[in-house]
Design a protein that fits this description.
- This protein has 8 helices and no strands.
- The chain has 155 residues and is mostly helical.
- The N and C termini lie far apart (39 Å).
């Protein structure tokens, strides 16, 4: 029974998410593809996620999404991005071969990330309405499922 307690300990990091997160932070800090301002924003986002008690694994996933988003912007800084950029990124993603689950997770990331950016004042170019419209309209492929959820108020 003593061994069972060791395996039942949920604080163990058997997948080494802590080290993965550390490596992602190092990768972002050392990257020449991120501006200094974008590095500051992404590391602040990481701190905010951890302060909100978001798991280390999910925080790592969001940092990977930040790296992906940086590539999508082709050198444009996060603070320069506007609603049209968000719409274009979401449109490109919707036409990709990514799974629906991945697309949905990325859209959640975009909402959360740009909400954070607006709160810290790094970007005033993207309104709540614009972001919601760009991301929400992209769920039309799941139309019937969403209509049923919204109508009943349940899943």
């Amino acid at each position: 029974f003593g061994r069972a307690k060791t395996y039942m300990n949920k604080t163990q990091d058997i997948h080494n998410y802590t080290r993965t997160l550390e490596r992602l932070v190092e990768r972002i800090k050392e990257s020449d593809k991120f501006s200094e301002e974008d590095k500051r924003v992404v590391l602040g986002f990481r701190n905010e996620l951890l302060a909100q008690n978001i798991s280390i694994s999910k925080t790592g996933r969001y940092l990977q999404e930040c790296i992906w988003l940086n590539k999508q912007l082709n050198g444009k800084n996060f603070e320069e991005m506007d609603g049209e950029d968000v719409k274009q990124i979401v449109a490109n993603m919707n036409q990709s071969s990514l799974s629906e689950h991945t697309k949905k997770g990325t859209k959640v990331f975009l909402r959360k990330f740009y909400k954070f950016i607006r709160e810290v004042g790094a970007n005033e170019n993207i309104s709540d309405r614009c972001l919601k419209q760009a991301v929400s309209n992209s769920f039309k492929s799941e139309g019937l499922k969403i209509a049923v959820i919204n109508e009943d108020g349940k899943k």
